[in-house]
UniProtKB/TrEMBL annotation, chain A:
The lineage of its organism: Bacteria, Bacillati, Bacillota, Bacilli, Bacillales. It is found in: Cell membrane. One of its GO terms (molecular function) is oxidoreductase activity. This is Quinol oxidase subunit 3. GO terms for biological process: aerobic electron transport chain; ATP synthesis coupled electron transport.
From TrEMBL, chain B:
This is Quinol oxidase subunit 4. It is found in: Cell membrane. The chain crosses the membrane at residues 12-29, 35-55, 67-89. It is a multi-pass membrane protein.
Length: 198, 93
């Protein structure tokens, strides 16, 4: 294995470089996945049938809390990667743990929101609008849920094996995934919630 | 302790909070749909770009143009899909 010391640990081998680039290709496909969901949502958002409209069911407070939680978690995992590059493994694990806790908080609010929607009669089968809304939000929420398990596995592995080119590479790739989820949320926040409440 | 909080990332976070606050103006202030949507488009895309460059370290390595090329191409295809569909189904063109 050839180590390139001019690069951070996560980029230090050819394999690591390819892993990171491969993950960017995957994120490109993820952009497209969410684009198809947004396409469906924008096409169907006014087809509310006998169900409620977006303006009737969206509430600013929980949405704003979810946004702040996810934005902060994205910032904190960025600090985690910075700590990793400094070789400060304890700080890195702390930042990653805070990230996952914020993610868990986000998920809690989102589950609460879904229960609320179903409770007020805006379930998956109510109208084309609620179906496309809940599918889009649910796909993002499922990604966050998956990320929580992935992140936990990363933390355990870094604890067990320390910072090696492999674990640093995996941690960096996980951070890319987490930032990407925040980017998707920015678009959900702007073009589903705020646009719907305008 | 201070070295754990690099200025670039802290500034990026503050800026993303400001962008969120600006986007919130469309809810709290009374503005037309067209102006509101313009504000949202501007804040959302600046925010996404901020994440890409500051937090995802997109421009750091030798393969930066492969990374940017891939991302911009997918955004392009995504916009074609979204607006192409809206043209056909919602705007009757």
């Amino acid at each position: 294995m050839k180590l390139d010391h001019s690069q951070p640990l996560e980029y230090s081998t050819g394999q690591n470089n390819l892993n990171i680039f491969g993950f960017w290709i995957f994120l490109g496909a993820e952009i497209m996945l969410f684009a198809t969901l947004f396409t469906t949502y924008f096409t169907l958002e006014h087809r509310t049938g006998n169900g409620p409209t977006g303006a009737e069911i969206f509430e600013i407070t929980p949405v704003l809390i979810e946004t702040i939680l996810l934005l902060t978690s994205s910032f904190v995992i960025g600090l985690g990667i910075h700590a990793m590059r400094l070789g400060k493994i304890k700080a890195m694990i702390s930042f990653f743990s805070i990230t996952l806790l914020l993610g868990l908080g986000f998920l809690g609010f989102e589950i609460f929101e879904f229960v609320h929607y179903v409770h007020i009669g805006a379930g998956l089968q109510t109208s084309a609008f609620t179906a496309s809304l809940l599918t889009t939000l649910g796909t993002h929420g499922a990604h966050v849920t998956f990320g929580l398990f992935w992140g936990l596995a990363i933390i355990l592995q870094v604890k067990k094996r320390g910072l090696t080119p492999e674990t640093a590479n995996k941690s960096f790739i996980f951070s890319l995934y987490w930032h990407f989820l925040d980017v998707v949320w920015i678009f959900i926040f702007s073009f589903i919630y705020l646009k719907g409440m305008m | 302790m201070k070295e754990l909080f690099p200025a670039k990332q802290v500034m990026g976070f503050v800026f993303s909070l400001i962008l969120t606050a600006v986007a919130l103006a469309v809810y709290f202030l009374d503005m037309s749909f067209a102006i509101g949507l313009t504000v949202l488009v501007v804040t959302a895309f600046i925010q996404a770009l901020l994440q890409l460059v500051v937090f995802m370290h997109a421009g750091e390595t030798k393969d930066k143009w492969s990374i940017y090329g891939n991302v911009y191409f997918m955004i392009f295809i995504a916009l074609i899909t979204i607006f192409g569909t809206l043209f056909l189904f919602n705007w009757d063109m």
